[in-house]
Amino acid sequence: MNELAITVIGRDRPGIVADVAEVLARLGANLTDSTMTRLRGHFAMTLICVGPAAADVEAGLAPLAADGQLLATVRAVTPDGATPPTGEPYVLSVHGADRMGIVAAMTRVLTDVGGNVTDLSTRLTGSLYVVVAEVELPPNSSDEVAGRLARKAAELGVGVSLRPADSDLL
User: Fold this and answer.
1) Between the CA of residue 34 and those of 7, 12, 79, 99, 158, what are the distances in Å?
2) Is the dihedral angle over the CA atoms 146, 150, 156, 160 positive or is it negative?
3) Has residue 81 got a pLDDT over 70?
């Protein structure tokens, strides 16, 4: 079985997810992990599937991109198998006036203490910038990390919160 990483990006329109999913199902690809979002009118989807060869999936998706409105890429990847979490799950939230470097500064704090960002989204609404990230922190490091994040947030003039993730939610 082949494991494939697929991206689809372009101007949003109704039906993209259905179109891509139908192609993959017709080819016998089992969709294992995926994420999709709309970013200021642009569609962005990344997924991992198991099944057919990359060339077959590329050929199957080609008609969806034929008009130039979508770009679909397919890449064979090496299966990692199930990876156990490397730390404790937390949710980081940052909010404040938009300015350059918020994501870079806050994620650098996490990296410097051995943390890992597992999911991140940002949103700009007017002049308010919001970051929500799921992160894994080294065991028993949350107090130290929260302190470092608070100091960095003060430098940036933004608010920050770090809370344990609800383990009952996917």
Assistant:
1) 10, 17, 15, 30, 31
2) positive
3) no
In our burial notation (b when 16+ CB lie closer than 10 A, e otherwise), range 37-62 reads eeeeeebebebbbebbebebbbebbe
Strands 2-11 and 42-51: antiparallel
Virtual CA dihedral for 82, 84, 86, 88, nearest 10 degrees?
A: 130
38, β-bridge pairs = 43
pLDDT for 53:
95
DSSP state of 157: T
* Residue 64 φ then ψ, to 5°: -70, -25
Give the model confidence (pLDDT) of 141-159 as tens digits: 999 999 999 999 999 999 9
How far is residue 17's CA from residue 23's CA, in Å, rounded to a whole number? Answer: 10
Closest C-alpha to 61, from 72, 70, 51, 52: 72
The amino acid sitting at 123 is R
Query: What percent of the chain has a predicted confidence (pLDDT) above 70?
Result: 95
Confidence (pTM): 0.79
Longest dimension (CA), the chain: 52
Query: What is the distance in angstroms between the CA of the first residue and the CA of the last residue of the chain?
Result: 26
